[in-house]
TrEMBL record:
Gene source species: Sulfurisphaera javensis
Name of this chain's protein: DMT family transporter
Compartments reported by the entry: Cell membrane
GO cellular component: plasma membrane
One protein family per Pfam: EamA
Length: 281
């Protein structure tokens, strides 16, 4: 009996690691962006993470379809993620709105793959979108929240593209290519956001983000998908935006507003309902 409990706990360790490194990454990104532009931070993160994934996966997979996947899932998405964190009132709010991705995926799958939405999923979509609108507030006040929401939308486009064209690929080698090929794509954009103030704290934080959120996070994520399955892993990953509020307070001292708490709660409830609906399909 003890062995069974121990085995079950070991199965959940990878997703626990994912939740910890990804939820703590949002306030760390906020710190790094005090010293460098979103583009420079993305380049550092992707270079470090991509090289580690390259070594761990013993190679990479490349091609035209893979390049388009890299643009959608990493290069463009990373810009919106960093900008969203930079401009949001609380980095955890950015995390919550980015995690609307499953809601947009459900909508895209309905139109592209004729997947039935169903009452539960439809309810989840309505609740999540309502929460996102409420949390975003006035466009002139919380532009970062809107950018983060758009980041979730773009992540969903990348996910649907991955499903259609790249589903049979080795995920570690594919993500290594995604990260490394995104670096030369982002480099020409550096002059347009040429902000870098030398700081050991800033550089150290950027390196930590590359090691944990980009490399360790993806290795643990794919390990979890293998051991627990995609549904359980995706469902438990919803702890990321919730814990981001805890880490944002712990690291930055950011206290969420009532609007952020209520809006984020609605988003998470909606996303959970959308995920639960997947059981029936």
């Amino acid at each position: 009996m003890d062995n069974n409990i121990g085995f079950a706990l070991r199965q959940y360790l990878p997703i626990l690691g994912v939740v910890l490194v990804w939820s703590s990454a949002y306030p760390l990104i906020k710190i790094a962006l005090m010293y460098m532009s979103p583009i420079i931070l993305a380049i550092i993160r992707l270079t470090i993470g991509g090289l580690i994934l390259l070594i761990y996966g013993k190679g990479l997979i490349y091609g035209i379809k893979e390049f388009i996947g890299a643009l959608l899932n990493v290069a463009i998405f990373m810009i919106f993620l960093n900008l969203g964190v930079l401009l949001s009132t609380n980095p955890a709010l950015s995390a919550t709105l980015i995690y609307t991705q499953p809601v947009f995926v459900a909508i895209f799958n309905y139109f592209l793959f004729k997947e039935r939405i169903g009452k539960l999923r439809f309810l989840g979509i309505i609740i999540a979108i309502s929460g996102a609108i409420y949390a975003s507030g006035n466009i002139s006040i919380n532009i970062g929240a809107l950018i983060s929401l758009l980041g979730g939308f773009l992540w969903a486009i990348g996910t649907v593209y991955y499903r259609k064209y790249l589903l049979d690929k080795d995920v570690i080698k594919l993500n290594s290519f995604f990260a490394l090929v995104s670096v030369p794509v982002l480099l020409p954009l550096v002059p347009y956001q040429n902000y870098f103030r030398f700081s050991l704290l800033g550089i150290f934080t950027a390196i930590i983000i590359g090691l944990t959120a980009q490399a360790m996070g993806f290795i643990l994520w794919f390990t979890s998908v293998k051991t627990l399955g995609a549904f359980k892993s995706s469902s438990l990953s919803l702890l990321v935006p919730a814990l981001s509020y805890f880490f944002s307070y712990l690291i930055l001292g950011d206290i969420p507003t009532i609007t952020e708490i209520l809006g984020s709660s609605l988003v998470l409830i909606g996303v959970i309902l959308t995920n639960l609906a997947s059981i029936k399909h």
